[in-house]
Amino acid sequence: MSYKYAITSAMQSLAYDPKIRFVGYGVKIGGQALGTLKEIKEEQLVETPVAENLMVGMAIGMSLAGLKPVVFIERMDFILNALDAIVNHLSQAKAISRGEFSPAMILRVVVGNRAKPLFTGPTHTQDFSHCIAGMVGFPVRQVTRETEFAPIYDHAKACLDRGESTMVVEYKDLM
Fold this sequence. Notes:
globular; 6 strands; 175 residues; 6 helices
């Protein structure tokens, strides 16, 4: 089994839940999240502009409305644009609201390629996993082997069902 096939299988497994929504740019049109969402029902795909803070903010609202968002961020470098929504809202909403609101999502984040052809450059290949893990109150899981996808996404889905978020970091060089 390849790394990409394992991701695709994990996404298909998540999609069995009718409340799951895959949110991001390139999830419905273009590359369909690097080809990993091709078999997902169109009504579960929510295409957005390239606006990471908007994507996370919208997913927070979707979560509060009872949906279970999986936000796809194709380049970890651009997660910096969403840190306000992630650190100050997603991670803190339960505490700020004294338990009244508890938005949750899976953040699916990709670190760009360095070793494959068409190197995307130093501003498209940074990995902020450890920094973000120190800023949020939910797990940040890095997937370096295809055998890790099923258990990591199963755990992320169980967390999501309990109203807890997870960030899963994938590596394009391994696809």
